[in-house]
Amino acid sequence: MDLNLYALELVVRDKLARLRAEAALHALVTRRTAPPPRPSPRERVGLALIGLGRWVRGAARGAVTRAS
Q1: Model pTM?
Q2: Domain residue limits, the chain
């Protein structure tokens, strides 16, 4: 059996509408029930190293400005 293009377009349009509605519902449900994701250990270590570098750089700047 052969579907004409109009019937195929209607089937695809209906399926897309159902999938979009399901995706919107899923996004709404997961946004309210799921806690915010925790940063990974790699990300936490990276941010700690950045903070340490800024602290060391700030201490070095302070030492230079006090000496001059």
Answers
A1: 0.44
A2: 1-37, 39-68
